[in-house]
Protein backbone atom coordinates (compact mmCIF):
# COMPACT_ATOMS: atom_id res chain seq x y z
CA UNK A 1 0.00 0.00 0.00
CA UNK A 2 1.31 3.43 -0.94
CA UNK A 3 2.04 5.98 1.79
CA UNK A 4 -0.72 8.23 0.47
CA UNK A 5 -3.24 5.39 0.67
CA UNK A 6 -2.18 4.63 4.24
CA UNK A 7 -2.83 8.28 5.15
CA UNK A 8 -6.24 8.06 3.53
CA UNK A 9 -7.02 4.94 5.60
CA UNK A 10 -6.20 6.73 8.83
CA UNK A 11 -8.39 9.68 7.89
CA UNK A 12 -11.30 7.45 6.85
CA UNK A 13 -11.15 5.60 10.15
CA UNK A 14 -11.25 8.87 12.10
CA UNK A 15 -14.24 10.06 10.04
CA UNK A 16 -16.14 6.80 10.39
CA UNK A 17 -15.61 7.01 14.14
CA UNK A 18 -18.25 9.75 14.06
CA UNK A 19 -18.85 9.75 17.83
CA UNK A 20 -15.12 9.77 18.60
CA UNK A 21 -15.05 6.74 20.91
CA UNK A 22 -12.04 5.14 19.19
CA UNK A 23 -13.91 2.36 17.35
CA UNK A 24 -16.36 2.15 14.46
CA UNK A 25 -19.80 0.70 15.06
CA UNK A 26 -23.29 0.91 13.59
CA UNK A 27 -24.09 3.99 15.70
CA UNK A 28 -21.28 5.87 13.95
CA UNK A 29 -22.84 5.13 10.58
CA UNK A 30 -26.27 6.21 11.82
CA UNK A 31 -24.78 9.48 13.08
CA UNK A 32 -22.93 10.17 9.83
CA UNK A 33 -25.97 9.25 7.73
CA UNK A 34 -28.10 11.70 9.69
CA UNK A 35 -25.57 14.51 9.24
CA UNK A 36 -25.27 13.88 5.50
CA UNK A 37 -29.04 13.74 5.03
CA UNK A 38 -29.41 17.02 6.90
CA UNK A 39 -26.91 18.63 4.54
CA UNK A 40 -28.83 17.19 1.57
CA UNK A 41 -32.21 18.70 2.41
CA UNK A 42 -32.88 19.64 -1.23
CA UNK A 43 -32.29 16.12 -2.55
CA UNK A 44 -35.22 13.92 -3.49
CA UNK A 45 -36.38 10.88 -1.55
CA UNK A 46 -34.76 8.44 -3.98
CA UNK A 47 -31.33 10.05 -3.56
CA UNK A 48 -31.75 10.07 0.22
CA UNK A 49 -32.79 6.42 0.22
CA UNK A 50 -29.76 5.56 -1.93
CA UNK A 51 -27.30 7.19 0.46
CA UNK A 52 -28.99 5.53 3.46
CA UNK A 53 -28.65 2.16 1.71
CA UNK A 54 -25.03 2.90 0.77
CA UNK A 55 -24.09 3.79 4.35
CA UNK A 56 -25.93 0.69 5.63
CA UNK A 57 -24.12 -1.53 3.10
CA UNK A 58 -20.81 0.10 4.02
CA UNK A 59 -21.32 -0.73 7.70
CA UNK A 60 -22.53 -4.26 6.92
CA UNK A 61 -19.51 -4.89 4.71
CA UNK A 62 -17.12 -3.59 7.35
CA UNK A 63 -18.75 -5.62 10.09
CA UNK A 64 -18.78 -8.78 7.98
CA UNK A 65 -15.27 -8.45 6.60
CA UNK A 66 -13.33 -6.78 9.41
CA UNK A 67 -14.87 -7.53 12.81
CA UNK A 68 -12.39 -10.30 13.52
CA UNK A 69 -13.57 -11.03 17.05
CA UNK A 70 -17.30 -10.51 16.45
CA UNK A 71 -17.74 -7.83 19.10
CA UNK A 72 -19.75 -5.48 16.89
CA UNK A 73 -17.03 -2.85 16.65
CA UNK A 74 -14.15 -2.27 14.26
CA UNK A 75 -10.86 -1.21 15.79
CA UNK A 76 -8.22 0.68 13.88
CA UNK A 77 -6.10 -2.50 13.95
CA UNK A 78 -8.91 -4.45 12.26
CA UNK A 79 -9.56 -1.61 9.82
CA UNK A 80 -6.07 -0.71 8.57
CA UNK A 81 -4.96 -3.78 6.67
CA UNK A 82 -8.17 -4.50 4.80
CA UNK A 83 -10.30 -1.46 4.02
CA UNK A 84 -8.50 -0.59 0.79
CA UNK A 85 -8.82 -4.11 -0.59
CA UNK A 86 -10.63 -3.69 -3.92
CA UNK A 87 -11.67 -7.35 -3.95
CA UNK A 88 -13.49 -7.01 -0.64
CA UNK A 89 -14.71 -3.42 -0.79
CA UNK A 90 -14.88 -2.41 -4.46
CA UNK A 91 -18.64 -2.93 -4.95
CA UNK A 92 -19.43 -1.22 -1.63
CA UNK A 93 -17.24 1.76 -2.53
CA UNK A 94 -18.85 2.00 -5.97
CA UNK A 95 -22.35 2.06 -4.48
CA UNK A 96 -21.29 4.70 -1.98
CA UNK A 97 -19.58 6.80 -4.68
CA UNK A 98 -22.65 6.76 -6.90
CA UNK A 99 -25.03 7.57 -4.04
CA UNK A 100 -22.98 10.38 -2.53
CA UNK A 101 -22.19 12.06 -5.83
CA UNK A 102 -25.85 11.86 -6.91
CA UNK A 103 -26.88 13.40 -3.59
CA UNK A 104 -24.79 16.41 -4.55
CA UNK A 105 -26.93 16.95 -7.65
CA UNK A 106 -30.47 17.61 -6.39
CA UNK A 107 -31.57 19.34 -9.61
CA UNK A 108 -30.39 16.40 -11.75
CA UNK A 109 -28.32 18.47 -14.20
CA UNK A 110 -25.23 16.30 -13.74
CA UNK A 111 -23.35 19.11 -11.99
CA UNK A 112 -22.41 19.70 -8.36
CA UNK A 113 -22.06 23.25 -7.10
CA UNK A 114 -19.31 24.01 -4.58
CA UNK A 115 -21.60 25.05 -1.66
CA UNK A 116 -23.45 21.72 -1.58
CA UNK A 117 -20.24 19.75 -2.12
CA UNK A 118 -18.70 21.56 0.85
CA UNK A 119 -21.80 20.98 3.01
CA UNK A 120 -21.86 17.25 2.28
CA UNK A 121 -18.15 16.83 2.87
CA UNK A 122 -18.34 18.81 6.13
CA UNK A 123 -21.20 16.54 7.22
CA UNK A 124 -18.91 13.55 6.67
CA UNK A 125 -16.25 15.28 8.77
CA UNK A 126 -13.57 16.51 6.38
CA UNK A 127 -11.76 19.80 7.05
CA UNK A 128 -13.16 22.76 5.11
CA UNK A 129 -9.85 23.98 3.69
CA UNK A 130 -9.11 20.47 2.41
CA UNK A 131 -12.60 20.20 0.91
CA UNK A 132 -12.04 23.37 -1.10
CA UNK A 133 -8.62 22.09 -2.21
CA UNK A 134 -10.25 18.85 -3.37
CA UNK A 135 -12.96 20.68 -5.27
CA UNK A 136 -10.31 22.83 -6.95
CA UNK A 137 -8.29 19.70 -7.83
CA UNK A 138 -11.38 18.33 -9.60
CA UNK A 139 -11.15 21.29 -12.03
CA UNK A 140 -14.46 23.08 -11.63
CA UNK A 141 -15.98 24.91 -14.59
CA UNK A 142 -16.35 28.70 -14.88
CA UNK A 143 -19.53 28.54 -12.76
CA UNK A 144 -17.67 26.67 -9.98
CA UNK A 145 -19.23 23.25 -10.62
CA UNK A 146 -17.92 19.73 -11.12
CA UNK A 147 -19.67 16.79 -12.72
CA UNK A 148 -21.31 14.03 -10.76
CA UNK A 149 -19.06 11.55 -12.59
CA UNK A 150 -15.92 13.46 -11.57
CA UNK A 151 -16.85 13.17 -7.92
CA UNK A 152 -17.84 9.51 -8.18
CA UNK A 153 -14.51 8.66 -9.83
CA UNK A 154 -12.69 10.71 -7.18
CA UNK A 155 -14.35 8.71 -4.40
CA UNK A 156 -13.40 5.39 -6.01
CA UNK A 157 -9.81 6.57 -6.50
CA UNK A 158 -9.61 7.62 -2.85
CA UNK A 159 -10.03 3.99 -1.81
CA UNK A 160 -7.48 2.59 -4.27
CA UNK A 161 -4.36 1.37 -2.43
CA UNK A 162 -2.07 1.73 -5.44
CA UNK A 163 -2.91 5.31 -6.39
CA UNK A 164 -1.06 8.48 -5.37
CA UNK A 165 -1.14 12.09 -6.46
CA UNK A 166 -4.90 11.92 -6.90
CA UNK A 167 -7.31 14.75 -6.12
CA UNK A 168 -8.45 12.92 -2.97
CA UNK A 169 -5.00 13.30 -1.47
CA UNK A 170 -5.99 16.93 -0.87
CA UNK A 171 -8.17 15.65 1.96
CA UNK A 172 -5.19 14.43 3.98
CA UNK A 173 -2.91 17.39 3.29
CA UNK A 174 -2.44 19.81 6.15
CA UNK A 175 -4.01 23.14 5.25
CA UNK A 176 -4.24 26.49 6.95
CA UNK A 177 -7.81 27.37 7.77
List the helices and strands and how they pair.
Blueprint: H1 3-16, H2 26-39, H3 45-66, H4 76-79, H5 86-103, E1 111-113, H6 114-124, H7 128-137, E2 145-147, H8 148-158
Antiparallel strand pairs: 1-2
Helix pairs in contact: 2-3, 2-6, 3-5, 5-8, 6-7
Brief overview, please?
By secondary structure, the protein is mainly alpha-helical.
Q: Pairing-aware structural class of the strands and helices? A: mainly alpha
Catalogue the unreliable spans.
Answer: none
The strand count comes to: 2
Radius of gyration: 15 Å
Residue share in helices?
Answer: 55-70%
Q: Give helix and strand order, one letter per element, not per position.
A: HHHHHEHHEH
Shape summary: globular
Total number of helices? 8
The biggest beta sheet reads: 2 strands, antiparallel
List keywords for this structure.
177 residues; two-stranded antiparallel sheet; mainly alpha; 8 helices
Description of the molecule:
59% of the residues lie in helices and 3% in strands. It is mainly alpha-helical and 177 residues long. Strands 1-2 form a two-stranded antiparallel sheet. Helix 5 (86-103) packs antiparallel against helix 8. The chain is globular, with a radius of gyration of 15 Å. It starts with a helix and ends in a 19-residue tail after the last helix. The mean pLDDT is 90.
Amino acid sequence: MRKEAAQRVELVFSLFDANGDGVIDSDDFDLMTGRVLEAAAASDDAAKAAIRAAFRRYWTTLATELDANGDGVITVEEFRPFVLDPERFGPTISEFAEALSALGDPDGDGLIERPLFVSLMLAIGFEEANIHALFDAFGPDAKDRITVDTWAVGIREYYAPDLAQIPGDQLVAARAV
